[in-house]
Design a protein that fits this description.
By secondary structure, the protein is an all-beta fold. It has no helices and ten strands.
Length: 114
């Protein structure tokens, strides 16, 4: 069974940085793409980044492009999301997920204050 466990969230001031991690384990067949999404109270879920675990190529939502960077560990079982130049609008619960599946982690909270 696939397990995804996020860590690294916290509270920072606007302009600050955080690095989120996601440890993936279990069945990995067809896990060619991994992603991060976020959800804030009262807002729609928003996909923020995806990474092709084979090529390492990445894609980002316009709202985070140039500020967030997705990467993976050498074993491809750990994903990272570097969050730089954080804004108050980035406040949300961040989840690691396998796009197109129901697999996602429990989330890690990111809170950005002004």
């Amino acid at each position: 069974q696939v397990q995804l466990v996020e860590s690294g969230g916290g509270s920072v001031q606007a302009g600050g940085s955080l690095r989120l991690s996601c440890a993936a384990s279990g069945y990995t067949y067809n896990r060619n793409c991994m992603g991060w999404f976020r959800q804030a109270p009262g807002k729609e879920r928003e996909g923020v980044a995806e990474i092709d675990t084979g090529s390492g190529s990445t894609g980002y939502a316009d709202s985070v492009k140039g500020r967030f960077t997705a990467s993976q560990g050498n074993d491809k079982n750990t994903l990272y999301l570097q969050l730089d130049s954080l804004k108050t609008d980035d406040t949300a619960m961040y989840y690691c997920a396998i796009p197109g599946s129901t697999y996602r982690g429990q989330g890690t909270q990111v809170t950005v204050s002004s």
